[in-house]
Design goal:
- This protein is mainly α.
- The protein has one domain.
- It contains six helices and no strands.
- α1 runs antiparallel to α2.
- The longest helix has 29 residues.
Length: about 170
């Protein structure tokens, strides 16, 4: 598997740049739809940067990572999966409102055994990561499927970590 840098401005660079801009754009759009005031944003850095700071940071990261195919595909895969997850619940977050959704969600967490919740989260993360791991295992010499597998594993880890962070914030 080769993962050489691509020349800046080349057609391949532009392709990776478009891929990253699309994927990160979908993450941004789904986050904005779900939580326009970032009240429900699980990533503390994203909350701290806000929309403008996050947009600037992501523009720089997209331009930089478009030079490097493997991370470009990993980031794009993770971003699209995060966006899909955001879109899944955005309608409910928007219809209830950010504060009311947070209150409702915290209330549901409070009525659930912590062990059950953590076990379900772990099962979700392990099953998703298993798909990514299988992709990586069966395509060790093919850059794109290998990187997609790594992106799926990264997504599973991100869901687990940020969900646990949210759980910790809710329960304290």
């Amino acid at each position: 598997m080769t993962d050489d840098l691509v020349p800046f401005g080349s057609p391949l660079y532009c392709g990776f740049l478009l891929l990253l801009v699309f994927a990160r754009g979908m993450d941004f759009a789904s986050t904005w739809l779900a939580t326009p005031n970032l009240v429900l944003e699980a990533n503390p850095l994203a909350r701290k940067l806000g929309w403008r700071g996050g947009l600037l940071l992501n523009a720089v990261l997209c331009a930089a990572f478009a030079l490097w195919p493997m991370p470009a595909v990993i980031i794009a895969t993770t971003s699209v999966l995060v966006a899909a997850r955001n879109f899944q619940s955005a309608w409910l977050m928007r219809s209830l409102g950010e504060e009311r959704y947070r209150y409702w969600f915290a209330e549901q967490i409070g009525q659930t055994r912590l062990g059950l919740y953590v076990m379900c989260l772990a099962a979700q993360a392990v099953l998703i990561a298993g798909v990514g791991g299988a992709l990586m295992y069966f395509s060790p010499h093919d850059l794109v499927p290998f990187a997609i597998g790594m992106g799926i594993i990264t997504y599973a880890a991100a869901v687990a970590v940020y969900t646990l962070l949210s759980l910790w914030r809710i329960r304290r």
